[in-house]
From TrEMBL:
GO terms for cellular component: external side of plasma membrane. InterPro entries: CD2/SLAM_rcpt, Ig-like_dom, Ig-like_dom_sf, Ig-like_fold. This is Ig-like domain-containing protein. Residues 131-218 form the Ig-like domain. It comes from Aldrovandia affinis.
Amino acid sequence: MNNQNERLKRPRWVSAVNMLLHILVCQCGRTEGITVAAAGSTTNVTVGQRVLFPVLPEGNQTVIIELTFKSIIVVSWFSKSKSPKLLKSYERRIDIQEDGSIRMNKVQLSDSGLYQIKTHYMSVKPPLKPPKYSRFHLQVFERVSKPNITAECRRNNISLSCSSIRGNEVTYSWETLPAGGNDSCLHLGQTMEIYPLPPSESTTYTCTAKNPVSRATSDPIDLGVCSIQQPRDGRWVSALCGLSALFLIGLLIFFYKRNH
């Protein structure tokens, strides 16, 4: 009797666990490295991940499932044959799950775009069920690499530039922290111009690069050592300009007195 009770309880326990996992997948969108695409919205994924396009046919009916991308049929699957027809370039990257859902492996940047799943019901009894359409927008991102800062010491200012060699759709921001201070300043953009010249106290600058799937921060750079001074030749130029002006004024005075 106890054994029979345990057998009756076990399916309920298993069903509860499966339901919990299903809720987690729907809410979080990720499980075991798989991103579940959400119909009618944009799903962000990282290069190399796996994406699951859920297929939920209504009832236990015979169906034909088609996944199209850029108006091209990527995979066509007939529920009775169990053998999908794949576009040649996707043969090693697409799998059909037991429930008919379509899994794409090792996504690439070129996989970004709009996908459509058509579920065509093959019922032989009226009324005929119209086909069902589900649309998914997939956006693939490459993780950003650690950015580097380059500083150009100019005559009147310092130009800072931040760049990351890897990543797409990257945005940049700067953080400035004065020496001995706790209050930092933020600046948006890939470049930053510093006016006026930095004070003698050292100031630390860091740059952060990010996109919807990753972020990375550069090593700090201290611009206290970036001393901007006018070249020595500039003093001679200033002196010559002053002497020329005095000479010109003297000539004007001489000719004025001579004429009178």
